[in-house]
Design a protein that fits this description.
The chain has helices spanning 37-46, 48-71, 91-113, 149-164, 170-179, 183-207; strands at residues 5-11, 18-21, 26-32, 75-78, 81-84, 120-123, 130-132, 138-141. It is of the alpha/beta class. The protein folds into 2 domains: 5-71, no CATH class; 76-207, 2-Layer Sandwich (Zincin-like), CATH 3.30.2010.
């Protein structure tokens, strides 16, 4: 199997080579500047086994997701459980339900962690599930609506911990671990589920009559 397209990205600040294949089967090649065509061709040739394997994996994954969605055609995945679509008829209903849960969870964890968040918002971000600004404003991705509440809580604890530690140092992870003992397992679970959540987003939000969040 071959990619549907190949896109070359060159940047003067980049020092290493990176290949990435997106769900639309487009191969992105990130390079430092001054890589001539023959050198690029050699990189692609040497990477053929990885490219083929990755595309096959993505295709299998997409087939699996399509079957799951077909089996739940009249349902929506809400907080890790399949529910009736009419329970969340619009994008705004999804946003409201997620914001209510996150706000409630933060009200529980923030005092325990002795941190004070400022603004709390739901963003239409399909790559970053949560973020904490230097002003301690917390942003959460709408994708979390599809995740089980235990995984959402991990993301909440993670971002609350950034109010105290603006990095991913050992002190940060130790602090996360105080309030989420098995955070590594939950972190891996949410990483593994991310592409499925993105697929769900594309389905539900493209079909909705409301403007996306």
């Amino acid at each position: 199997m071959k990619p549907t397209d190949i896109k070359i990205h060159q940047n003067s600040k980049r020092k290493n080579i990176c290949l990435k294949i997106t769900p639309d089967m487009v191969l992105h090649l990130y390079l430092p500047l001054n890589y001539h065509n023959k050198k690029i061709e050699k990189i692609l040739e040497e990477s053929t086994p990885w490219i083929t394997k990755t595309i096959q994996k993505l295709a299998t994954q997409q087939e699996s997701y399509a079957k799951i969605l077909q089996n739940h055609n009249n349902e929506i995945l809400a907080f890790g459980t399949w529910s009736k679509k009419e329970d969340y008829p619009t994008n705004q209903d999804i946003k409201t339900a997620l914001l209510q849960y996150i706000t409630s969870s933060i009200a529980h964890y923030a005092p325990l962690m002795q941190v004070t968040p400022q603004k709390i918002k739901i963003r239409n971000n399909k790559k970053v599930l949560g973020s904490c600004s230097y002003e301690n404003n917390l942003n959460f991705s709408i994708l979390l609506f599809f995740a089980p509440k235990l995984l959402i809580d991990y993301v909440i604890i993670h971002e609350l911990a950034h109010i105290k530690h603006k990095n991913h140092s050992k002190a940060f992870w130790d602090f996360v671990g105080e309030f989420c003992k098995n955070y590594k397992e939950k972190r891996n679970q949410i990483k593994q589920n991310l592409r499925f959540y993105q697929t769900l987003y594309e389905k539900y939000f493209s079909l909705s009559s409301n403007t996306p969040l």
